[in-house]
């Protein structure tokens, strides 16, 4: 059997969820969209179900997968419905629904609903992706109430730059949000992971942590709370071939690495078809036989090469951690010029093995 696999530590997941709660004193929706950032949405939801105030996903297809697996808690659809004909299913399964656009508001007004909806009314406070314009916000709130089709409304917005600790944009977004909701007596939800970790002064009845649940920092710089996260996923494989090369020999596609001296090279069963980033360059950290080393040359589809020159205890069959408890996913992502969100979401082909249930 091919030795590539992702070990998922559900105890670490629960620790990180609890940390989000502790840091904020708020209710927390565990964001498990995109198959829980590659960790497996059903298993993650089941592991958190006793603890979590609810879950958030991107679309009804993801929400239905949770219900089909028996997950009963609240599930928020972060983009609401894409077509009005999803509304009966939303009611049937008791999903909570973001309303981010006037067309969605109109669809609710026109729908015949057997039960009232729970709506999270989203304001565009400056990110300019989705969300109602501040000038329409009050009116939308009143129209939802007047429709008779809504039982509860939570006011929400989303930060564009909370991962930049010395940037004032988040404060400006809070000010826009506070102005737009003045006079509306409803709970609010603002904070994603970087805001939970780095912006203690932002108040929010509900928080929406995603990446921090999986134990990766959203910050590109050092940040105090990051050290308290426990990495959930360990992506590992084994050395399947060892080569001793003299100086001046190329390694891998495109001869992107040429040995500067005699070297010992390990070939690892892991490649970009597993989701390991193809753009990770020579020097990207790996752990082999318990010792830090580095990637060499181009990542191929099913294999990559690492440096064993200074790791004499490593050889055929040695375990390699590509990221996990020792090699942070965020460091690998940075080396590959991307973010841990993407390298987790890209995971595929690799079997996931769960522990800590
Ligand atoms: C994905 C998402 C989150 C979670 O963001 P993280 O940075 O992973 O914590 C929160 N809120 C909304 C609206 C999202 O789309």
Automatic annotation (TrEMBL):
Residues that hold substrate according to the record: 129, 301
EC number: 5.1.1.1
Catalytic site positions: 33 (proton acceptor), 253 (proton acceptor)
Family that this chain belongs to: Belongs to the alanine racemase family.
Chain's role: Catalyzes the interconversion of L-alanine and D-alanine. May also act on other amino acids.
Enzyme class of the recorded protein, top EC level: isomerase
Annotated organism of origin: Pseudomonas gessardii
Annotated metabolic or biological route of this protein: Amino-acid biosynthesis; D-alanine biosynthesis; D-alanine from L-alanine: step 1/1
Sequence positions bearing N6-(pyridoxal phosphate)lysine: 33
Entry annotated with the keyword Isomerase: yes
NCBIfam families on file: alr
Catalytic activity line of the entry: L-alanine = D-alanine
Cited InterPro entries: Ala_racemase (IPR000821), Ala_racemase/Decarboxylase_C (IPR009006), Ala_racemase_C (IPR011079), Ala_racemase_N (IPR001608), Ala_racemase_pyridoxalP-BS (IPR020622), PLP-binding_barrel (IPR029066)
Name of the protein described by the UniProt record: Alanine racemase
Pfam families noted in UniProt: Ala_racemase_C, Ala_racemase_N
Cofactor: pyridoxal 5'-phosphate
Protein keywords: Isomerase, Pyridoxal phosphate
Gene that specifies this protein: alr
Keyword Isomerase set for record: yes
Domain Alanine racemase C-terminal stretches: 232-355
GO molecular function: alanine racemase activity
Superkingdom assignment: Bacteria
